[in-house]
Sequence to fold (251 residues):
Amino acid sequence: MIGVHTPEFSFEHDVDGVRRAIAARDIDYPVAVDNDYAIWGAFDNHYWPALYFVDREGVIRDHHFGEGRYERSEGELQTLLGIDRERVLVTGTGVEAEGDWAHLGTPETYLGYERGELFASPDGLALDERREYRLPSHLPVNQWALAGEWTIGAEKVVPDSAGARLAFRFSARDAHVVLTPGTRSSVPFRLLLDGEPPGSSAGVDVDEDGNGVIGEGRLYQLVRQDGAVRERTLELRFAEPGAEAYVFTFG
Fold:
């Protein structure tokens, strides 16, 4: 078994960051760093994560894109290895938990201007320059907006003042966002859900009062609704400038 790390964003090219992630997840098999996308291109891959099951002759026998389907994936591995034993039950947790696909109403949404869309702050956006933004009086579902001073770059948005806010109205059980602390060692933030602390709907990376800290570049789980899925508005408030936000994902 071998893993391949192909970076989606510029900060993910850092090999030391890959080493830290491997150690944090107790990964004990080799991981290739595919910074030039050579392996990605050879497989004509388009997804994170992607699983490919290859036999001894190099033939791809099965594949799976996205989280979940763990039991079947182990079955494919056992077949290829000639093993017949009871399968280990795997339940993904946190950002690795399988999404509630039957009730998912909001797509993955990038924030930088190269791939970003559905930006709802009045007066539009400015490219690569510091500017004051404000939230609209009404935020439609699947749209996002900024308030305070921000710089919108090609692949990320960066708050330039303490108290800057990022709002997103979504329809999903889980809400995640890729964040880094930028040049800082850490950046505190607070999450509000429909204007209130998230309580029992807090994701694994915030407490019930909505407090969280960006300590490294990764995917952070903000919300996991504890009841029926419905439209909600999340708001991130950054205590300090300099954090970087790249993409929201939902499940």
